[in-house]
Design goal:
Blueprint (H helix, E strand, L loop, with lengths): L6 H8 L4 E6 L4 E4 L1 H7 L3 H4 L4 H4 L5 H8 L3 E10 L2 E13 L5 E10 H12 L15 H14 L5 E4 L6 H11 L7 E5 L5 H9 E2 L12 E2 L1 H4 L4 E5 L6 H13 L1 E3 L6 E3 L3 E6 L3 H6 L5 H7 L2 E4 L7 H18 L6 E2 L1 H9 L5 H15 L4 E2 L1 H6 L7 H11 L2 H10 L4 H8 L3 H10 L3
The protein binds adenosine-5'-triphosphate and magnesium ion (MG).
Length: 436
């Protein structure tokens, strides 16, 4: 160490929740506070008294500061350590001695998640998901992702339709983050949870004294807050028809009037609307304005239900197993074969959200390294009767797979039934069905 640091100060830094690291002018780490060890999962021997340039392939903030001799404040930073990549928000500052000579550098950092949470709690106007967060390998989901990417940078409004829990909001956020509006706000309004009188003031804002209870100074509406970015209108099908008329006018003119004001405000907002309702039918029944429907439907996305994406069920189950068990600090690695077969045979009316909830409950209750069928049942997954499962299997097993299995077992039916995990009577039903 070529400059002294007071022990009392170091102790104080240990009680700070941000990671703090200090290096000398040669780039040798001379201090890390407790939080820094925790954030990057390091032991003292791994880092302390090591040249920072040697402990990671990525250039560290400390080296950057030493080279530039200038502070770098609140920047996103990626840093690898022991094979793990960390996404951080860092600030680095040079340390000078009494003669103005640089003697070292200090780096103060926190995980990006913490920073995002903070930003969101202040503004509440951010989209967190990206297309990489949308798990799915089947053709139908891949083609919706491709289409969404194309739509992202076409500035038209988008209508997303899909059953509950299919990921409509996930798509809306990913589209925003993929679009060139990504650095501007993503503001969401759920049309189902607000009474219709409030939707009006939530969308358009109001002037002081516009109505009894109006806040002093007035309030900006979601359109103003979303200016330059995206306004996500969730559960659009629940929007009352007179508000639909106002919305249409805004979409046509891109001008809003706060309630109680005659001063129009110009806005630049892209709308992404989502619904699980059949808007076409609602238009026919006079519950939804046809002109608004056509205006929003220009770019239309249909998110497929989970039951039509069978090949994604286990992929998603394993994804949630990995993600949620880490979150719960548990080492759960497997789903039993019976468990998998149950997951595959369920109808998933609540789609991915239902699967996520079931896995989350099962992980919570699990005290081994495997999610079993019983755990899934306790977590709310319905059991099906033997007949229902067989019926489903009957429609699933293709002629091709059956003949290949029989070739593999040299015509041995018992062995084929075992390999296919079906009973012998079921195997015979298939043989008859396919004339084999
Ligand atoms: N393909 C996917 N990959 C990973 N997670 C997903 C996927 N689809 C949905 N999810 C997760 O499932 C949950 C439900 O998704 P989301 O809220 O986007 O659904 P939704 O269609 O908006 O539902 P609702 O109509 O009920 O509002 C979320 O936790 C989301 O992260
Ligand atoms: Mg939703």
């Amino acid at each position: 160490m070529n400059f002294p640091i007071d022990k009392a100060i170091l102790n104080a830094l240990d009680s700070v929740n941000d990671g703090i690291s200090i290096c000398d002018k040669n780039g040798v780490i001379i201090y890390l506070n407790e939080a820094a060890y925790k954030i990057v999962g390091a032991e003292k021997n791994d880092i302390l008294n090591h040249a920072v340039a040697r402990i990671s392939p990525d250039k560290s903030m400390l080296i950057n500061v030493l080279e530039k001799k200038k502070s770098i404040i609140d920047v996103e930073y990626f840093w690898s350590f022991k094979g793990k990549k960390f996404h951080l928000i860092n600030s680095g500052y040079p340390i000078f001695d009494d003669y103005g000579e640089i003697v070292g550098a200090i780096d103060i950092f926190r995980s990006i998640e913490r920073s995002r949470k903070l930003a969101n709690s202040i503004a509440g106007h951010q989209a967190f998901f990206n297309f990489e967060d949308i798990i799915g390998e089947c053709d139908s989901i891949k083609s919706v992702i491709n289409l969404s990417k194309i739509f992202s940078n076409n500035d038209e409004n988008i209508l997303i339709h899909g059953e509950t829990g299919t990921g409509k909001e996930l798509f809306a956020q990913s589209i925003h983050n993929y679009s060139n509006r990504r650095n501007n706000p993503f503001v969401a309004l759920n049309c189902a949870t607000l009474p219709s009188e409030l939707i009006d003031s939530e969308l358009f804002g109001y002037e002081e004294g516009a109505f009894t209870g109006a806040k002093k100074g007035g309030k900006s509406g979601k359109f103003e807050l979303a200016n330059g970015g995206t306004l996500f209108l969730d559960e659009l099908g629940e929007m009352q028809i007179h508000i639909q008329a106002k919305l249409l006018r805004v979409l046509e003119t891109m001008c809003i009037n706060r309630i109680g004001s005659s001063k129009p405000i110009q806005v630049d907002v892209r709308i992404i609307a989502a619904t699980n309702r059949n808007l076409e039918e609602m238009v026919r029944n006079g519950q939804f304005r046809q002109d608004l429907y056509y205006r929003l439907k220009v770019l239309n996305l249909e998110i497929p239900p989970l039951r039509s994406r069978e090949e994604d069920i286990l992929l998603l189950s394993n994804y949630f197993l990995d993600k949620l068990s880490k979150k719960a600090n548990k080492l759960i690695k497997h789903i039993s074969e019976e468990g998998k077969s149950m997951l595959l045979n369920h109808t998933w009316d609540g789609n991915v959200r239902e699967l996520e909830n079931i896995m989350s409950r099962a992980i919570y209750m699990c005290d081994s390294d495997t999610i079993t069928k019983d755990l899934l049942i306790q977590s709310g997954l319905e059991t099906k009767t033997y007949d229902q499962i067989q019926q489903k299997k009957l429609t699933k097993l293709s002629k091709d797979i059956l003949s290949k299995t029989l070739v593999k077992t040299k015509g041995n039916k018992r062995e084929a039934a075992n390999l296919l995990n079906i009973s012998r009577p079921t195997l015979y039903k298939y043989l008859k069905k396919y004339n084999l």
